[in-house]
Design a protein that fits this description.
This protein has helices at 12-24, 35-44, 61-70, 88-97, 109-123, 158-169, 177-183, 194-207; strands at 4-8, 28-32, 49-53, 79-84, 101-105, 132-135, 138-141, 146-149, 152-154, 175-176, 214-217, 221-224. The chain is of the alpha/beta class. It binds calcium ion. Calcium ion binds next to loops.
Length: 235
């Protein structure tokens, strides 16, 4: 599920740049230019994280922080305070009120996006066990669409991820190129079966030490082999 960030910021240009970068990072973003708008947004949908400017036209960001931290429904929503250097005292008060982190304006948007990521990862609900599949060095988090080899994340495209999970779900059973085109690409023979080979090759390169799980079945297609070290007699 996409995580939602609320940006409370009355400098419109700054809010726009920040929203753009957070969305590019795969997050859902809402913005509010005033305290009143911020409360409306929170009421409509409690966000997963709030970036809070302290100097707003109607209320102080500190009041917002205090109010949200006093409400059981919003108490656990992480808050990152954004403030000017001169507002150091307010920043400290904010942290005492329960804000999770702060950035000093002017801040690096890249750095802020990174901090958002770190906090969201920390607060992410635990993945249901059924969605985490492990095979030796390979682990796949189906719910989060993430793949790890030796606990290092491997960045797969949507298509590569679908190819890998499709093979995995049907492990030890050979899948023809035509079947894979239908089920992974959701296309029939309008694209060439060689496309499958190209993507399998790229997927194997990314999987590195886990690439041997994906066996070539000569003349037919591919299959996911649950024992990576078995001799490859069919490919
Ligand atoms: Ca401001």
């Amino acid at each position: 599920m996409t995580q939602r960030v609320l940006i409370v910021e009355d400098e419109r240009d700054l809010a726009t740049v920040l929203a753009y970068n957070l969305r590019a990072d795969g997050l859902e973003v809402a913005t509010a230019e005033t305290g009143a708008a911020a409360y409306r947004e929170v009421q409509a949908k409690v966000p997963d994280l709030i970036i809070l400017d302290l100097m707003l036209p109607d209320v102080s960001g500190l009041d917002i922080c205090r109010t949200l931290k006093a409400n059981p429904q919003t108490r656990d929503v992480p808050i990152i305070i954004a403030s000017a250097r001169s507002e150091e005292v307010d920043r400290i008060v904010g942290l005492e009120l329960g804000a999770d982190d702060y950035v000093v304006k002017p801040y690096s948007v890249r750095e802020l996006v990174l901090r958002v990521r770190i906090i969201l990862r920390r607060t992410e609900p635990a993945t249901p066990a059924a969605d985490l599949v492990r095979f030796g060095v390979l682990s796949i988090d189906r719910a989060a669409h993430r793949t790890f080899v030796n606990d290092q994340e491997v960045a797969l495209t949507q298509l590569e991820f679908r190819l890998l999970t499709t093979l995995l779900e049907r492990k030890n059973r050979t899948q023809s190129r035509e079947t894979l085109l239908t089920d992974v690409w959701q296309l029939n023979s309008s694209i060439e079966t060689r496309t499958v080979d190209t993507h399998v090759k790229r997927l194997r390169e990314k999987l590195g030490p886990a690439s041997s799980y994906i066996r070539t079945v000569r003349g037919v297609g591919y299959r996911f082999a649950s024992a990576p070290d078995e001799p490859q007699i069919d490919g």
